[in-house]
Batch of 2 targets.
Target 1
Amino acid sequence: MKKNNPFKIGIIGCGLIGSKRAESLGKDGSLVTCADLDFEIAKKFANKYGGTPYKDWRNLIDESNIDILIISTTHNSLSEIAIEGINKNINIFIEKPAGINSKEIQSIIDVSKNKDVKVHVGFNHRYHRAIIKAKELVDAGEIGKLMFIRGRYGHGGRVGYNNEWRANPKLSGGGELIDQGSHLIDLSRWFLGELKLVKGVANTFFWDMPVDDNAFMILNSSKKQVAFLHASCTEWKNLFSMEIYGRKGKIELNGLGGSYGVERLTFYKMLPEMGPPETFSWEYPMKDNSWLKEMEEFYDNIIFNQNPQTGLDDAYGNLKIIEEIYNDSGYIF
C-alpha cells in the first residue's frame, strides 16, 4: 500500500533545521505552508521552498489542511505546538529534544494516547549511513555481546555563540548537554537499551552564558553495560566519535560529513588467537542523506500504521537523564 498523492506538510520554524527538513521531504512530501515568528523569514522560506507563509503558528494549524506538521522551533515552543497539532489530528514530526523537560514530553504522551496520529521525534543521527551499518553489524552479532560505548561529540561554537538562543535557558532548557549530548544519549540507548545515570557533570568552562558548555556522563544498563560520553562546545575542531565494544570486536565511528569530516566506520574483528584484529572499513563521502531517510521512514510509519522508531518514550527517557545531570551539577532551569 502506498499513498497516491504526496503528504501535505507544514513546517513551523523556518531557521536552519527547518530548511534542512524542507530540503529533505522527498517525492512523497509536499510543503504547502510554513510559519515563523519573523514573518519576513517565513515569506523568504515560502518563496524558496513553496507554500503559504504565516506569522502565527496557530493560524497555520487552524487554516491549513495538512497531513504532517514538522516543528523545528526553539525548544520552549516544541511541546505546546505539538499538543495543538495532535488535538487537530495531525501527524507530528518534532525535533529533539521535543521539549525543555520531561514533564512537557509526558504532556504530549498523554494527549497523543487518545488520538490516531503518529509522533516522531527527530533524532536524525540514527539515520546516518555509518550508524545504520553499525547497528546492522551489532544486530547480526558480529562483535558479540556488547560491553560498553565510548562517545564524544563537539563543536567550537562561533563568535557571539553565548548570545544565541541556545545560551538562553528559557528558550533552550539547557546548553551543550541538551543539544549535542542528547544525540549521544539517544544513540547509546539505541544500542544498549534503557540506561540509568551513574554519574554526570555539566559545567560552563569557557562561554559567558548561564548554560553548560561541556557535559560528561557515565550511564549503565540493567546488564551493567556502560556508556561513557562527553559533549562539548569547546571542542574547537568539530568532532564526532563513537566506539562500540563487544566481546568479539569493536566498531569505531568517526565523522558526520561536512565540517565533522568524512563519515567512516571501522570494524575490528577479534581473531581466535587474539592479537591484531582483522580490520574492515567503510567510508561514506557522499552527501548526508539522514534527513531524507528519517522522513521517508515516517511516511511509511503513517502509511503502514507503525510506531515510529524514535518516539516520545525515547525523548522522555533522554530528558530524564539530562535533568538528573543538570540537577546534580547545580543548574536550575
Target 2
Amino acid sequence: MNRLKKLLMVPSLLVWLAQASFAAEPMEIPVWPPEALPKIERVKPEAVVDRGSTNKPDRAVSNVTVPTLTVYLPEGNQTDTVAVIICPGGGYSHLSLDKEGHAVARWLNTIGVAGIVLKYRMPRPDLSAGQKPWPIQDGEQAIRLVRSHAAEWKIDPHHVGLMGFSAGGHLASSVGTHLETPTQTATNPVERLSTRPDFMVLVYPVISMEEPIAHQGSLHNLLGSTPDPKWVEFYSNDLNVTAQTPPTFLVQAQDDRVSVENSLRFYAALRKAGVPSEIHIFEKGGHGFGLGINGGETAVWPSLCAAWLKNR
C-alpha cells in the first residue's frame, strides 16, 4: 500500500508522532551564492524565539538576510519523487519555521513526498526599490535550485510545487501568478530553468493587498508604509490569475483573522481562468493551525491535501 493511501487511514495526530521515523537526515544549502546577495549595512542579526517545547519546537525567526533551503527526502525515495517547497508564514516580519516549515516537511515525507523548507529573506522595501521583493526572488530561485538538483535528489523536475502558509501563501501565489520566462542565454545553467511551480498548496494564505481584506502587517512589511497603488494591485494575486497559473489547493477557516475572502477570491479567479483547483473552508479553526494537530475541524486538511496530490 503506498504512503498516500496509508495517510488517508491514519489520524493526523498519529501522523505527527510518526514523522521522526520517516524523515531522512535533512541537508541545508544556500539559496544564492554569497556574491549574489546585496551587502546590507547596519542590519540586525538573525534572531530566534522558540515559543514551543522541547518535544515540539515552534521557532519564530526574524531578520533573515541569508536564505536557505532545508531538504527532507523521504526514506528510500525513488527517481521521480514529487517535491514541495514550503514557505512558512509570519506576516513578512518573521518565519514560523517549525510549525509551518520543518514539521510540514516531515509530514510530507510520510506520504513519500520530498519536503523542502525555504527560509526566505524578510522584505526590505527601503533597500529593494525597483526590484522584485526579496522573498519573491527567493521563492523563484528556490524552484530553479530544486530543479537543478533533481537528478541528485531523485526528484521529478516536472513535479515541483510550492506550499505557503499565511504570508508564505502570498509568496507562493506571487511566484505562481507572476511567471518569469527562463533566460536561455544565461551563463549560469540554473537561471535557464523555469520558476513556474507545477502546483500550489495555499494554507490560510494572504492573497490580496487591497482594502478591505488586506492583512495590514504583510502589506506594509512587503511594500512599505505608504505603498504605491500600482504595486498594491500588482501583488493582489487574485487579480493576476491566468490560464497558466498552476493547479491549486486552498485551505482556510471562516473565523480566520486574515479574511477568508483571500482564499475565496483566489479560488473564484482560478475557476474563471479554468485552472484546476480545490478549496476547503472550515467553519472554525482561526489562523495559524499548521497541520491541525491540536484537533478541531482543520485536523483533516492534510489527508485531503494528500488525496489531492495523489489525484494530480
